[in-house]
């Protein structure tokens, strides 16, 4: 990469970090209550919330990791990245219910909704918070590690300095602006991702001449060898299922589509919306911006395949360099926009998961363990201290402990689904979802997440090549429903009248 | 009303289990098609208002989306099999005929039905009157000293 390109990338990245910081400070005036500070509750319009939701969902892995998987295995992962309809589905399933819960009482976190629905069940709140924390901290560590490695390598900077610089600023603006600031900065970062995505997609067509050329090149390439690496290609590589078993396509389709409704970055944004009747508009903004970012990941993977198939580059020694290698072929502006997109994706997801983790530690878990409630300003003070301490620890551990990041990588999207489906999807769609049923479903989720984590570390093969988390999701949902049929805590006749109105809405 | 809701939730739980067992046993295409109905079940429960689902909303976006996605998976499977091990003799928009349906019906069709459909039918999903009634009901419950 040329020195000019590096200067441009540093300049643009620095500008983006500064603008994010300024937005975070500006948002402070909006975060004047505990609800606004923790949840941005009922504060924002559909455009801001839509972009914020998309950018928090699309992590740096989507921009860097997914093109690598497509390069290595073909199209199964495309189902995941083309799941833009998931936002509409999520809002149809839970949008009005979750937003309506914010009319029942002060809502600052998912734990507050759980309290209202399950009559302040401390057990449900505690277990849900623990499982959510596992998933959030895993995401956070992965963003910190991935971006620090990439930018340190790219710019030739010290790895620790790079990590603390990028995420130190992020921690600072999140401490100042809270979740209200988080939502606004994520919206800005989402806009950067969408605009950069459109330009890179145009670049893909310029470089390759379109998908027909990619298919022709890949279909005719056969085995390509170079630099000591051999890559086998065929037309089957680019059919809908690629070279993996069909079960993988099935899971990569169902888990992101239906799983979106169970992601905290989607659920929390439902109550951040000022007017619930704007939710369909929010769904459109989220879907359209996600469509750009999802398609971007696809074209980066296809682009790398094209370059290898046409002999322009040797087969990649590491598949996860596919996106960066393709960006290099787009020229200086392609490189600039690619790194800006990665940085925006990492910062938006990291800020969301840092805020959620800090909220769980400073607010939800103490309440679940029966500690005395404190007033709003004290909550905000504690949250800020927790965010600072947790942020610094997360950055330090992510940068110094490779094995921890790898281990935490086990948890993620699926883990978050196991925490939220029993409480929100079953709990807000079904009046007979009982306290006991949800507690059982969550307990099973927690135990199976831990057991599967051990099994994954020991290279256990799950039946039918189905990922472990899919098994856990199914067992926790089935247990929730079955136990609810025979119990009645906070359900049926014991259901709060206001909650009943929410389920009926 | 509550019975219907319970029956639907039981069907959802059974569908989750069936999708998993089918996946374990390699019957993934059937599982994919079944999972469309699993998702439809969730959306029907979410869109139902006071125990009733608006017929217009059921037709579009819900059933339109269902038809598009079932067609998507079946067409992808058909063309993947038809051209297995060989170069396809035609493309659709430049894509492999199997993958083209992921683009056309799964991705674009998904957005055109669920995202655009929810926006186009927003008043059937949540009308101003329903929202105001809900808020006044909650206010009344609060005034009577209910939990809310």
Written overview of the protein:
The complex is a heterodimer of chains A (505) and B (148). Chain A is mostly helical and 505 residues long. Helix content of chain A is 74%, strand content 2%. A two-stranded antiparallel sheet of chain A has the order 1-2. Chain A is globular and about 70 Å long. With 148 residues, chain B is mainly alpha-helical. Chain B folds into 2 domains: 1-53, no CATH class; 54-148. Chain B contains 6 helices and no strands. Chain B has helices at 2-24, 28-47, 55-82, 97-120, 122-125, 128-143. The longest helix of chain B is centred in the middle third of the chain and has 28 residues, at 55-82. Chain B is elongated, with a radius of gyration of 20 Å. Chains A and B meet through α6, α10, α11, α13 and α18 of A and α1, α2, α3, α4 and α6 of B.
Shape of chain B: elongated
Number of strands of chain A: 2
- Give the low-confidence spans of chain B: none
From the alpha carbons, calculate the radius of gyration of chain A and give it in angstroms: 22 Å
